[in-house]
Fold these 3 entries.
Entry 1:
Amino acid sequence: MARVGIVMGSDSDMPVMAKAAQVLDELGISYEMRIISAHREPDVFFEYANMAEEKGFKVIIAGAGMAAHLPGMCAAIFPMPVIGIPMHTTSLGGRDSLYSIVQMPSGIPVATVAINGGANAGILAAKILAVSDEELLKKLKDYSSSLKDSVQAKDEKLQELGYKGYMK
Ligand code: RP5
């Protein structure tokens, strides 16, 4: 049974949403991924949001661009956490998506990550699930350690080569 719902407003959002899915794949978290437009097919959207709890989702990751109502409307219906990913847009640089997703009215929160923040959405979903999953929590701690190791390896290389050698 999928623990996370990943939903995007259009297939043009896929490169960003794939980063969230990749994180869940790496952490062994089951998910269902869908393309559903709240604007272009509201009936399909309402069916999806209404069934999400019954399907077993504990978190929904919803990404959308422009007048990005998909995450907020998921949060209006789904009773568990919703993580919103604002898509970069050519006209307004993603500020349109960001403001549409982050500026939710009191009572209906959406945990909004950065513009195009697909990977962080996946990590945040994992952290939410890890509250009641010791094995997953251990994987997330290992992931944090790997981030530290990677920065330290870069600094060691810098100390060894100097900045000119580092940039070659
Ligand atoms: C939103 O409109 C989608 O989430 C997408 O980011 C944006 C543009 O959609 P397309 O015109 O590329 O299908 O609903």
Entry 2:
Amino acid sequence: MSVLIFVDQADGHIKKAAYEALSYGSKIAAQLGTTAAALVLGNVPSDLSALGKYGVQKVYTVNNDKLNHVDSQVYASVIAEATSTIGANVVVFSHNQTGKAVAARVAARLKAGLVSGACALPDTTNGFVVKKTVFSGKAFANINITSPIKVIALNPNSFHVTENGGVAEVTELAVTVPESKIQITNITKVLGEVPLTEADIVVSGGRGLKGPENWGMIEDLAHSLHAATACSRPVADAHWRPHHEHVGQTGYQIAPNLYIAIGISGAIQHLAGVNRSKTIVVINKDPEAPFFKAADYGIVGDAFEVVPKLTEEIKKLQA
Ligand code: FAD
């Protein structure tokens, strides 16, 4: 009996959500009186023993070129076999792009109950009850997982990273890596400075900006904060901004520490993609804009006046 945490990494860079999953999984192990281990796939970063800081005693690796790109079927096969080999009975993922593609497949292979979108430690006093967000974060559900193996996908930004462990033992795991049924012919990386789904701070613009020619001030503010840029759906639909910046129910769902919404009304479909942000700042000239209800801080004002002043002040603070 142990807890296995999948560590999401790309090009040797461990994603922020993976540290949250490690801290979360280690806490579950402590709660169950068992051990926690991490699983890292692909050409793995060096010095993985340092992951012990987040509470895992062991790090298992499957160092194989075929795992450098996420193929959900291949990943699911490898992770399910690793789970059985290790004898883990709780498997933790981040509920991010990779976790969403892989966790359910792993659960199906292991005949395990799955809770995706978990937002708190399970209550193990009477069963194994996991709290999760439902209806785009508008409500919570408590789900009791009754299967012997349990799979949990943790919402990004819902659990603090804690560093109170030591050095982990790193072991290469012998598992079968199946051939992929797909062939990647070309990869074009978006040349944004900060990937949207990984960004700590996101500066987002809506139709209130009037046109693509006005995005310079959004980019300036984003640069000053080392932030990623995002937009509402109509902005992407009108080709003012590329679709990979569109956030919301039908776009990316993000959970940065700070989300700055500029000239966005705050329609429910937009909020569905951003309401897990830790702090929301809204800049809108209409004091009745619905977004203010979801905001931690609000500025009622014309974006064309407020945003350049804000950027100027931030730059002064950084000088
Ligand atoms: P608007 O609603 O036009 O709002 C513009 C805002 O800018 C207003 O609040 C206005 O007061 C403010 N403003 C105007 N001028 C200024 C100024 N000078 N300074 C400051 N503020 C100013 N939308 C998404 O974003 N993401 C989705 O994923 C998504 N999915 C959808 C799915 C479905 C099935 C449907 C039906 C809709 C979806 N939508 C989505 C659309 C959504 O309902 C809204 O229409 C959209 O979010 C509105 O975008 P907006 O806030 O940029 O524009």
Entry 3:
Amino acid sequence: MSDKEPIFVTRPVLPPLEEFIPYLQEIWDARILTNGGPYHQRLEAALCDFLGVAHISLFGNGTQALLTALQAADIDGEVITTPYSFIATTHSLLWNQLKPVFVDIDPQTLNLDPARIEAAITPATKAIMPVHCYGHPCDVHAIRTIADKHGLKVIYDAAHAFGVQDAQGSILKYGDLSVLSFHATKVFNTFEGGAIVSHDKETKQRIDQLKNFGFERDGSTVALLGTNGKLSEIHAAFGLLQLKDIGSALQQRQVIDQRYRQKLAAIPGVTCIEGLNESTANYAYFPILIDEAYPLSRDALFQHLQDKGIYTRRYFYPLISNSPVYCELPSADAANLPVATRVANQVICLPIYPGLSEEQVDTVIAAISEAGRA
Ligand code: T4K
């Protein structure tokens, strides 16, 4: 273990505490703590504005938002999805009594491979749930074409895709719904939090009803099986404060991303992942793939970095399809998922977050490069 300060895969952005005090004072004065209070409303409006989307419904976390998005989609049967994601993606299907059907990923983007989707469609298929993995956009146009041809809904797990844009604007405009996570480890965080992006007023109203126990606007009629998905005023206020500095946070991430790319390019056996479609990236993660040209296995490198006090993560290993909850599904067979299986055994996500110093980035690079020479 190194005597230097540990380097984590991510650290949340925290504005100076004194800047948060006036927000707390306002909450204390108004004594409105939750249930769609003033900060909640202000954050929804500010996020619509910043992200360039029509409607946002805030949630207590991204998983609740995924669960409600699928409920709002009002589907049954099978949903095509990726095995290369966080477990919450697939859990949200099962909680809605939907059957996940895993389709392999594209080796460049590590997102659901559109060329493999049609072969997995059956009469029971009702939707596609792709993930913009690491904030790199899916092939949204190819997915839309397939969905339209087969009459399928598209619900994007956009947990990583805060602020990502393509040439047409926000990546969150695609699909029927997109779901964000504002967890502490994300580019933009409200400690815990999440949101559903929708495109029309009626859908937003339905989602807002579902996240508030199913209550209609009269506050007494309950016609839907809703849940409690609300975000509290403290979380919303923190989000508003953090949004002020988001530009600088994204810029700092970009600088780190560029430094890694520049310096890791010279190390044999280490491949950096490129986003293909984004005009504005968010640099949410910095995944690298370790292949046979590198002297250590991925797991040996992971351990080597840990011994040096560098705590990386193997997002997303093991594959969701290998977890005991899903491994019995026919589509979970590794033979059906060769790219995802290979990538899950090669990936390491390196530290990237605002405040990670140039020196710390160089420490990570040196540790990878030294181990590569051993
Ligand atoms: N869909 C996708 C594609 C997702 O990636 C996620 C969540 C979801 C849906 C569900 O959204 P939420 O319901 O979570 O909003 C993390 C997060 O818990 C999870 O939100 C995230 N994806 C997933 C990819 O990663 P861990 O197990 O890596 O977290 P943890 O606690 O090990 O933290 C990693 C590092 O971050 C630590 O080494 C130190 C640092 N850290 C973490 C926390 C929580 C801090 O410095 N402060 C903190 O408060 O799961």
